[in-house]
Amino acid sequence: MRDFVIIGHRAVTSPDFSLNDLPGSGGRMDVLCRCINSALFLSHDMRRDVRVHLLLLGDPDPGIIVRFEGSSLKYLNPDERSSGSLIKKSLQKNISDIQVQSTPGVWIRKGNLEMLMEEFRDTGRNIFYLKEDEIDIRASAHLMDDGIFIFGDDMGVNEDEEKLISGYEPYVISLGPLSLHTDHCITLINNELDRLVVDK
Amino acid sequence: MRDFVIIGHRAVTSPDFSLNDLPGSGGRMDVLCRCINSALFLSHDMRRDVRVHLLLLGDPDPGIIVRFEGSSLKYLNPDERSSGSLIKKSLQKNISDIQVQSTPGVWIRKGNLEMLMEEFRDTGRNIFYLKEDEIDIRASAHLMDDGIFIFGDDMGVNEDEEKLISGYEPYVISLGPLSLHTDHCITLINNELDRLVVDK
Asked: Which Gene3D superfamilies does this UniProt record tie to the protein (chains A, B) (predicted)?
């Protein structure tokens, strides 16, 4: 299993955003939509062993987690508008602490980063966090099988979030010499993990 | 310099497609838009040493090349709709064999794959073509600096195109054990090239 968490600092928590303006009205929802694509799509196939957790922290009701489960996901196409549409549908549900399924493979509930990190700690799996100038992914790939990967959006991860994540003893890794978009980072991690499976 | 060519087999050659339906009305224009993103974007920056050549082969006027020049590109945002909008604007020009600039860094002209390949051959640079189960990118990275990379869209490269490309003695490389979307392939190649520059 691979879990990708993306923190959407301005991602709106109401279904009233426009699919014609995901960056503006959606609070950079386009960033999260591209992460859905890079995490889940293979050529003419879907990664069934991947889960994506979108943490929506924008107005009007910050603190919502939308989870895409590769194993049971339906109705997702590769374009941004398609994942945007499934997120919008999930936000139309009655959202509480108890998760509900809005469409096959898409779940929504109230929640925050700490709650997610606690749940992940309970699994005993390795947690990874990206930072420039850290240990290169190619030197730590052997630890990454079954990994949990925590990302910021276009604003990165703020100081409080970094402090929180650091409390869970993550491996801190780097993907190369340049600073990249989160969806590009996910593509690189998926490729490294694909290579790992074959090398086994 | 890095050049990425993407063959859009159904990509429409009229500006009459809807930005609200890039996959349908645009003839899978969404695939090309995602390639623009993965080829050109860095975190809060743009890759100025990258050129993307979109070969549009859909109706009504198949055989148009739209070129995005990282060095002079303006008005491009990371979302699919943004690159779709620049492509749409370029298709509104009077298109002939002589290239015209539609917006800063976006050029359009009539053309086909053979014409592009001839132009690339004249540069003397290495040409790369992707295929599964070939030599791994990590073993051929040293040849890729200043490379030209030819891709199909979601339909891949057809037999005639493969035959044509093969006539230009390309290096045939592979990116890993699984078959990936073209934009994900471009992200992996960019990362490999980024690492190469640093290792120099």
From this structure: 3.40.1280.10
pLDDT digits (tens, 9 = 90+) for A161-184: 999 999 999 999 999 999 999 999
A145 to chain B, minimum CA–CA distance in Å?
16
Homologous superfamily assigned to B2-110: SPOUT methyltransferase, trefoil knot domain (3.40.1280.10)
Domain ranges of chain A: 2-110, 113-199
On whether ipTM exceeds 0.95, the answer is yes
Instruction: Closest CB to A181: pick one of B41, B175, B184.
Output: B41
Q: For the CA atoms of chain B, what is the radius of gyration?
A: 16
Residue for token pair 């999260």: A32
For A185, the closest chain B residue by CA position comes to B187
Superfamily of domain A113-199: SPOUT methyltransferase, trefoil knot domain (3.40.1280.10)
Name the CATH topology of B125-199: Alpha/beta knot (3.40.1280)
Nearest to B143 by CA among B169, B119, B179: B169
d(CA B87, CA B89): 5
Nearest-Cα distance to chain A for B59, in Å, is 21
Taking the C-alpha atoms of residue B183 and residue B187, their distance in angstroms, rounded to an integer, is: 6
